[in-house]
Amino acid sequence: MSLTITGAERDALYERIVMRLNGIDGVYRAIEEEDWAAAQELGREFSDLLRFVCEDLGWGEGAKETIPLSTPPDVLSHAVEVVSGLARADGAHFEAEKRDVEAQENEARYLQQTCERLLEKLEH
Predict the structure, then answer these.
(1) d(Cα 45, Cα 33) in Å, to the nearest integer?
(2) Cβ contacts of 10 within 8 Å, gap of 6 or more
(3) Is there a contact between 7 and 61 (Cβ–Cβ < 8 Å)?
(4) Residues 31 and 39 sit within 8 Å (Cβ to Cβ)
(5) 66 within 8 A of 6, measured Cβ to Cβ
(6) What's the chain's average pLDDT?
(7) pLDDT of 5-47, one tens digit each?
(8) Per-residue pLDDT at 98
(9) How far apart are CA 49 and CA 22, in angstroms?
(10) Backbone phi, then psi, for 77, in 5-degree steps?
(11) In this structure, are strands 4-5 and 67-68 parallel, antiparallel, or unpaired?
(12) Which residues does residue 68 pair with via DSSP β-bridges, in sequence order?
């Protein structure tokens, strides 16, 4: 089975993976805390993400054409599952932010209406 991704898909995957790599020091913290299970889990996660970038996505600017994927299926599957989980978490975070902004907008609108009503009453 030959898998390919578009340049746009590559860029989306690459950007989110690079953001996640900011947390790679978590492996070291887990080792310091002797949390071997966490060190193993994080080590595998970052290993698979790095292999995906090194073997298929490349570093820096991406190609604009179709990219064939050659990362071993088990590594690719785990890397894609990790990125999918990150995307779900991002979506939930942005949805919560959206609800907060909507609540703040409603509060501001209500306050504005209250002030306008009071000013109107004061003018009469």
Answers:
(1) 18
(2) 57, 62, 63, 67
(3) no
(4) yes
(5) yes
(6) 91
(7) 999 999 999 999 999 999 999 999 999 999 999 999 999 999 9
(8) 83
(9) 12
(10) -60, -45
(11) antiparallel
(12) 4
Q: What are 14's two structure tokens?
A: 């690459």
Mean pLDDT of 45-71: 91
Task: Write the DSSP assignment of 40-95 as a string of letters.
Answer: HHHHHHHHHHHHHIIIII-SSSPPSS-EE--S-HHHHHHHHHHHHHHHHHHHHHHH
Per residue in 103-115, pLDDT (tens digit) is: 888 899 988 988 8
pLDDT of residue 70 exceeding 90, the answer is: yes
CA 7, CA 65: separation in Å to the nearest integer? 5
Element (H, E) at 5: strand 4-5
Of 20, 102, 97, 89, residue with least CA distance to 53? 20
pLDDT confidence tier of residue 63, bands split at 50, 70 and 90: confident
Residue 33: strand, helix, or coil: coil
Distance CA 64, CA 7 (A): 4
